[in-house]
Amino acid sequence: MSCAALYCVCVPNLESCVAVPIVCLHVLAVLIMQCFGWTAILTQMGTARLPTAAEIERGDIVACSVCRTIKTPTTHHCGRCNMCVEGFDHHCVFLNTCVGKANYAAFLGLCTFAGLCS
Ligand SMILES: [Zn+2]
Ligand SMILES: [Zn+2]
Q1: What are the phi and psi torsion angles at 77 (to 5°)?
Q2: Can you spell out the DSSP letters for 17-64?
Q3: Number of the ligand closest to the Cα of 81
Q4: pLDDT digit string (tens) for 4-37?
Q5: DSSP letter string, 83-101
Q6: The pTM is what?
Q7: Distance from residue 36's CA to the centre of ligand 1 (Å)
Q8: Which of 21, 57, 75, 79 has its CA 20 to 30 A from that of 85?
């Protein structure tokens, strides 16, 4: 017996029969969205990595004028976090953290499930 059929047996009202599985899916989507959100928040944004030999040869390496970290071409300084973040995309005001290379996948999952839940 499927989960939806079980709800129909337990709840004979037709509106409840349709509403209960939808509510369950919505709650599940909200829980998954929160998992992605907390992962994006708690993941270290990925501070500047060590440059590769090719980047050193090309001369792409510069020091950050604010925090003095060695910056690669994909590293940018976030003024709100006051640190350099590799693969910097943006500073998310809702998560109060930078979205960078390390937490970009979790941020995309959060956005996807936030869209599904709305
Ligand atoms: Zn910096
Ligand atoms: Zn930031």
Answers
A1: -90, 130
A2: HHHHHHHHHHHHHHHHHHHHHHHHHHS---BPPPPPHHHHHHT--EE-
A3: 2
A4: 555 555 556 666 677 777 788 888 888 888 888 8
A5: EEEET--EEETTTTEEE-T
A6: 0.67
A7: 27
A8: 57
